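Q: Got one fold?
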Amino acid sequence: MKFIVTKNRLNSALSIVNRAVSSNAPIPSLSGIRIDAEEERLILTGSNSDISIRMNVRTDDNADPQIVEKGTIVIEAKYLTDIVRKMDSEKIEVEIIDGTLTRFSGNGAEFKINGYRPSEYPNIDFSVPEYTMNMNAGRLASIIESTAFAASVKETRPVLTGVNFSSDGSRIIATATDSFRLARNVFTGNGDSFNITVPAKSLNEARAIFNDGTKDLAVHLNTKKIQFVSEDIILQSRLLDGSYPETERLIPKEFRYDLVVNKQKLIGIIDRSSIMKNENMTVIRMQIKDENNISVSNRAQEIGEFNEPIHPLSYTGAPLDISFAANYAIDALRAIDSPNVRIRFTGEMKPFIITDEAGNDDVLQLVLPIRTYN
């Protein structure tokens, strides 16, 4: 194998593929990146067995990359990325010189690195799953941003570490919950019915890689895996096993209290209250006496206390006294793409929901209250 490629193109491709590589890979060769030199293209592959990324670097009008001799090698990712990043050369020549010994050279600098044989690298099935839908990259990012943060970070219930996508054909409901909060985004389906749960980590990688909101993606899925495909990049993820809990019943349908407030101002108030922490957690108290007397307060034993009024755009309902986790409320507020938000309550110890000002529940955040003894 021998090829010559510009440093910038190779470095850019490696930065994407390397996102799927783990230093704690279950198979030694998975700590490497596979490079296939084919006719008029390089194929770079990285995987940690949960996420796999494949990227084509095609020969352009300037004959870059130049494939001199076809072949395949797997190079330890940490060495490969460092070599390419630190070489002071516009172009880099890569050549297998003896078995798996690979030479990287350019502008007088030369590295010789031992790689893995291609046979040691697992065969990753990038075949296209049966269900397909097209989606704008910006729309995908919006769905992920409004849901994935609410997935659990604990492995005690693995299925909750993902975002569930259920479709009845006409609409798709994306849901994430860690049992203390819930995030939901509803969008138009593609005619297929399915119910899958995608790891939140995989979705966040997809959001980071496909970050050009002007481009369209093809999303392919079946009962085992999901693929996000754009031009020369494929990100493939396994799905989480297990039945996702029925969350629709958790969302209140009737409300007794209705508060509309500026989102950024409320985030600012809650953020200021977070200075007072008890055991690394901030539980804040919202007291509503009437439309003109609403406040957020917080008290931490041996530290002090905080109090600030809220000036709502409107409030309907009786007096209310409710406590909840500050960080959960801030995350939920940030997920709503609206300058003003509507917060609807059903009672002091019942979940409340946050939507945009119009009350559109296609994008909905639910937060559970916390019992306090004030």
